[in-house]
Amino acid sequence: MEYSKPLKTISKIIPTSGKHWVGDGFNVRPLFDNYAFTEALSPFLMFDYAEPKMFPPTKKRLGVGQHPHRGFSTVTIAFQGEVEHADSTGNTGVIAPGDVQWMDAG
């Protein structure tokens, strides 16, 4: 049996973009660079990659602070390490390696 669908072409190769700081000292790298909020991609699709980072024990509260997710869904995947999420009502959860969290914000 032959594969009969036409091959797709690559429309653009997006070079690696720079990192930017989020919260108290971790970097994210936007995978779609500046194209995430253009007509080239859905305005509702954004991918950031946070590389592994070790945080030494501290009594200082770390995090990204309050930021609105109101009206859309976020998906977090932990490949390594753990990520703790908390919402404005006090719900918290830890995302461990291999876990996926899908959060609908109201």
Name the poorly predicted regions.
none
Structural class: mainly beta
State the distance separating the first and last CA atoms.
48 Å
* Helix/strand order, N-terminal first: EEEEEEE
Largest sheet: 3 strands, antiparallel
Give the strand order of the largest sheet, numbering strands 1, 2, ... along the chain.
1-2-3
What is the 3D shape? elongated
Our Rg estimate from Cα atoms comes to 17 Å
The percentage helix is under 10%
Beta-strand segment tally:
7
Strand fraction equals 25-35%
Q: Whole-number average pLDDT?
A: 79
- Helix segment tally: 0
Q: Any key phrases for this structure?
A:
two-stranded antiparallel ribbon, 7 strands, 0% helix, elongated
